[in-house]
Structure formats: structure tokens, C-alpha cells
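One record is set out below.
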Amino acid sequence: MSDLLELLIPSLIETLYMIGLSALFTIVLGLPLGIILVVTEKNHIMPFPTLNKILSTIINVIRSLPAIILIILIAPFASLIVGTSIGTTAAIVPLIVAATPFFARVVETSLREVDWGIVEASMAMGASPFQIITRVLIPEAMSSLALGITITLINILGYSAIAGILGGGGLGDLAIRYGYHRFKTDVLIAAVIVLVAIVQIMQFLGNSLSKSLNRK
């Protein structure tokens, strides 16, 4: 049991490290990207159809690539940024690239759910586009955004497990190297149980936060 814990705990820490940093940068990059996708649509508060179409196409291209292929393609870029293409820190770069377009679409969907009548009322009162975004769209969509962040975190966890196959570290790497290649079934099962537990905790916290932010 102690040997199993000695393997699990470092891998769990690596996984949480990857998820934490990847999620932070994904939200920082994906939130404004999702906002731009909404407000630059025709007949919205900052119409710019050309920019909207270009961004939408780029996002669709990235999202169409399977995670494992995207991780391989981004490896040279990760090496350029962090100095290596192998390891936990290097895996964060492709995780961000993979998760940001996904989260941008989540943000886009959440903001579309905001009642257009509220936006029109704000425009009639002379609110600027920035004020509408920060005081109307985002606050009104907070409950949905909380669920969107939860889904994104769970996706990043899945991506991190795939990154483990390519030497990214974490629970995915542990499950493959020790559980599969060395035929240690107990390690494989333990890694899967921990991953499932993380997902359950994330979903519970996300649902609770969403309910607390729900204005309806």
C-alpha cells in the first residue's frame, strides 16, 4: 500500500499542477476570445463579421484535431517556450492550446443565453460596449460560465491523461508506464479511481457554484 501511495501522490500532484496552470491560462485566453466571437457578430454591439469569421475558422480547425495529434504538433512550440518537449511543464503548453478554443466556444454559448432585451435596454441607456460586456453579459452569464469552466477543467484532465502517454507526467503517465507496460493492474486501477474521484469533485463544486450564481 505504501509503495502504491509513493507512486500515486507525486503523479497526483503533477496532474493537479498541469490542470491548475492550464486552466488559468485557458480562462485568461479563452474568455476574451469567446466574448469577441459574440460581440463581433452581425447586429451585435461591436459588429465585425470578417474578424468573427476568421476567429471562428481558426477555432474550428484547432478543435477538429484529435488531442493526441495536437499535443504532438505543439511539442516543438512547447520546447521553444519552456526549453523541453517532455515533462509536466512542457505538457501545459499543448493543454492550453487544446483547451482554449473549447472554452472560447463555451463562453460564446453562455453569452448567447443572455436575454437580448437586457442588452438592448443597456444600449438605450447609453452604455458603452465595454460596460455592456462587463456589467451585463458576463454577470448575467456567470452561472452558465461556472458550469462551462467545470466542463473545461474536466476536459483538461482528460487531455492531461493523454499527454501522459507522450511523457507528460501525471496520473496518465503513471497508468501507462506502470499499470499497462509493467502489468501492474493495481496501479492502473488506482490511477483510474483517482481520476474518477477528481472528476466527481470538480463536477460537484462546479454545480454548487453555478447554483449559487444563478440569478433566476
Q: What stands out?
A: The CA atoms of residues 91 and 163 lie 6 Å apart.
